[in-house]
Amino acid sequence: MASNAEHHHHEESFISKYIFSQDHKMISKQFLVSAILIAILAYMLSVFFRIQLAWPKESFEFLNMFLGDRWAPGGVLDTNAYLALVTIHGTLMVFFVLTGGLSGTFANLLIPLQIGARDMASGFLNMLSYWFFFLSSIIMISSLFIEGGAASGGWTVYPPLSALPQAMPGSGLGMTLWLTSMVFFIVSSLLGGLNYIVTIVNLRTEGMKMTRMPLTIWAILMTAILGVLSFPVLFSAALLLLMDRVMGTSFYLSDIHIAGEALDYVGGSPILYEHLFWFLGHPEVYIVLLPALGITSEVISTNARKPIFGYKAMIGSIIAIGFLSFIVWGHHMYVTGMSPFLGSVFVATTLLIAIPSAVKVFNYITTLWKGNLIFTPGMLFSIGMVSTFVTGGVTGIILADSALDIPVHDTYFVVAHFHVVMGMSAIFGMFAGVYHWFPKMYGRMMNKRLGMVHFWITFICAYGVFLPMHFVGMAGVPRRYYEYSNFPMFDGVMDLNVLITIFAILGGVAQVFFIYNFFYSLRKGQKAPQNPWRSNTLEWTTPVEHIHGNWPGKLPTVYRWPYDYSKPGKDEDFVPQTVPLADGEEEH
Amino acid sequence: MKLLIVIVILLGVAAIAQAVRVHELAKKLSGKKEEEISISDNNLNANLWLVTLAAMVISFFYLIFRYKDAMLPESASAHGAEIDTLMNFNLWLVCTIFIVMNILLMGFAWKYRYRLGEKAFYYPHNDKLEMIWTIIPALTMAVIIIYGLMVWNDITDKELAPDSITIQLYGKQFDWTVRYAGEDRVLGPSSFNFISGTNPLGIITTDIHDATLVIIDAEMKTLKDQLSNEVMGETAYEKAEARIERLQRQKVRVLGFARVNEEYEFAKDDIVMDKGVFYIPVNREVNFRINSRDVIHSAFMPHFRMQMNAVPGMSTSFKMIPTITTAEMKLKTDNEEFDYYLLCNKVCGAAHYNMKMKVMVVEQAEYDKWLSDQKKFVEPEPTETGGEEVTQNNTGE
What we know:
The structure holds 2 protein chains of 2 kinds.
Chain A: H1 14-19, H2 24-54, H3 61-71, H4 79-115, H5 123-142, H6 173-202, H7 215-246, E1 257-258, E2 261-262, H8 270-304, H9 311-324, H10 340-352, H11 354-368, H12 377-400, H13 402-408, H14 412-442, H15 448-474, H16 494-524
Antiparallel strand pairs in A: 1-2
Chain B: H1 2-30, H2 39-67, H3 78-111, H4 127-156, E1 165-172, E2 175-180, H5 206-229, H6 234-255, H7 265-268, E3 271-273, E4 277-281, E5 286-292, E6 297-301, E7 306-310, E8 316-320, H8 326-332, E9 340-344, E10 356-362, H9 364-373
């Protein structure tokens, strides 16, 4: 095991160093680069269908250029292709970028470095976790290129639509590949999650009490617990769906007459699938969000030169959010015919989440108060993240209220809500993490000016897309519609669709700044100093050049919490965790 | 076009590359470091927070001003008014939180920018303060939960008014069919096993029971003849065999229904509408029973604040009282073209975006007249042509 490997260097082949690496830092980089590539693809898919929504049925030659004659004949997106793009955009973003990519990158990088461990508990499982992730993303992406197209029932793939190949072309091979890919993805996620938990619980260095862990680690710990408890449920949901598809079982299907004939399925219920799916699906939101909240806590505290306010309350709210996230899934199902009384229970539990979330936001804002803020790109994205977390969070109050859900359920109001609170917040957290820890990952600095330009355009475009989208949703415009010309009642807000698409394209272009900056700095960036952000946490005590085992010689000992910034009576405005408490000094 | 896009992208990347290179060289000469943010850069970012905040708040109010009429169009049902009041209450609260919190956040970001030689205020926690902002959201949520559930309980109350009309909304790829319960106010029994071209809802009567068995037997016989007499490809052969098996099982299920059942009487005066429009009377409770025959659909009528999924294998329901007739709404919106619509709001396949039915809300008298003009599922007197098919003359016209 890596923990007793000390630091005897041995020459490694290219394959064991860069491909089948068991070193957590390399695996973290593999996750990050994969996630960036997948995110570029997933973003492009969204631009394609946004163009159809803004200028329905108008011909765009480049759609034909990218999608070919079957999907965009004459430059007009096909209806089935539209649904396939929507589905795969959602699947790739939620699972592959914001779950696999975000957790995979920062859990792997930060857990050993911030708790003072030589590596993850099992480097081998960690490697498997990445390669299962890789395999599943290849399967998912390849489903875009098959006859009949990729899965098209929306990222939630509700049966019977997803179960019956007669129902739509995407429910044929495309759906089988979707399910296969998810099985591998879940395996990857579980291997990763178990590893994270075991490492955090067992491999903390001397003095690293649970109450001295950086909030990133707390957030990742809770994320991993949520994943380990909820992904198996999605696994069973997918397995039963697969059995309905290929073995003729009736778990989710009953009383179906389709394509001119009565099918044999009797006794199942699609609602069962919805329960199983959302039992994962809701914790999944926090699996995506918590690492981002952890990262921003760390980055904001460091760059405000001020301790994070209410450290224990932050931990408490992470735990509370994690617990509550398991008993709120029914709020996705108020209009499915679920018992109204059960609905009311979910109203109450869901709105309770607003309390720990509000505590977190107040604590962030108080952390900024009377701080000494340095606007590194990471800091900009972190503050941006808190903003989107607030903006997206408050609309959740409306959607959680079952009576109010009736007029806005499955409209663009929902789309706007979860993109802001989950999509934007998590991706901003991820950007913050990349800018902040790039020096640790690659030993070089990213260009700060490009980072700033990237942030401001991205931030403005994010609001440019999603603020108007709330209004489209409030007008009752349903999501997953190919076009709206049949419904004159929505004409009043259709011009907003053009505005949204323009901001979406601009936002996409802005990512060129990031991608260029990332890959350029990787090779040619300025060499990183030991502790560029003058931070307290342990990762900045490791050598800039990566070594196996992270620390040459003994592991560091921890004497204090990680947030001693601007502590009175100290010369510097930061005190690393490895500095012993002075005589009579209180920890915090 | 193709070339143009590629060139623009390449030029863009090249331009950024050059800008960075110049910047890097300049920096190397001046000895500046990436990790150090200059005071001028820092101030610029701080000011940008203020500018963005202002832009955001202004555009938000502009959007409200510009689109307030399109948002939640006037509700045309009794419970819709209740929902709207609750919605307005919540929206006020939500918008206030949104604006105040963003002002605090970005305002602080602007105000507390880095000042040379100053130290941040070491302020790790304050239990009292944290208690306050745990309790305030908790109380607010308590109010929202209680108010919200009061409205919810009202809407979902199972008890029906004595004069309520029962109407079935039946979804299939990609249209809606509507069935009125008729004078007996009870929908006749139905099952997916009895669906045919002339009986889209699978309503059961003794005649249909017989006819269905005849149809199944006929198709089985044709297929069996094909299997024994024709030369077929392997796939076609397997397909036909599988079809026969399915038909056999369908037959078993059909035989599971009694041939004669007094409940079948309920079906006779039912009225089935699949012509893209249906009528409901104003100010009278309508109880929708919602079903689907293939995938999940969702019956969504934005103006009535009504939405409920149509789930194969089970019935869902939603009751409401329409309060504004179509004619009145045309006047109110000053739009001759105005119509209420029933939409599908759960993705159900390629033509999902096209699945709709017009809803006419009319005065009771007009409703009664319209309804009496519609044909019943089984007409009281037999028609001239005879035979079991012709007794169901409500469809296929």
